[in-house]
Specification:
Distance between the termini: 46 Å
Strand content: 35-45%
Shape: globular
Structural class: alpha+beta
Number of strands: 8
Mean pLDDT: 77
Radius of gyration: 19 Å
Low-confidence stretches: none
Order of helices and strands: EEEEEEEEH
Strand order of the largest sheet: 1-2-3-4
Length: 121
């Protein structure tokens, strides 16, 4: 995935690019920075950048990426909420969904079609 923003700060335009593949990268005016997820199950990135006094944050949760400039998201003009304030339960449910999807493979040596759920008494 690749997402590009052109942000004007104090009359100067800056190109900010977010790339994923084998790891996440942030390119700011050609300079490359490696990004690391804060969660082992999903992509969870909240990276601050300061350009000419303006605070710019790249925020990635799962496959959704947005840029916040001075506390306002660029895609929908909503107020920036730090990723650390995202409820942990929401992050946990993603991990549980992943485990639920993989459970038939772990519990049986067969494919999804041959797995039989047994009732619990």
């Amino acid at each position: 995935m690749r997402k590009v923003w052109n942000v004007t700060v104090n009359g100067t335009e800056h190109k900010i690019e977010y790339k994923t593949g084998w790891g996440s990268k942030l390119l700011v005016d050609g300079a490359t920075y490696k990004l690391k997820s804060q969660n082992p199950f999903i992509v969870l990135i909240d990276c601050p950048i300061v350009i000419d006094g303006a605070e710019i944050r790249i925020v990635a949760i799962g496959n959704k990426v947005d840029l916040a400039v001075n506390g306002v998201y660029q895609s929908n003009q909503e107020k920036y909420i730090p990723v650390r304030n995202v409820p942990g339960l929401g992050q946990c449910t993603v991990g549980l969904k992943l485990c639920g999807w993989l459970a038939p493979l772990w519990c049986s040596g067969n494919s999804f079609g041959n797995f039989v759920w047994l009732p619990v008494h």
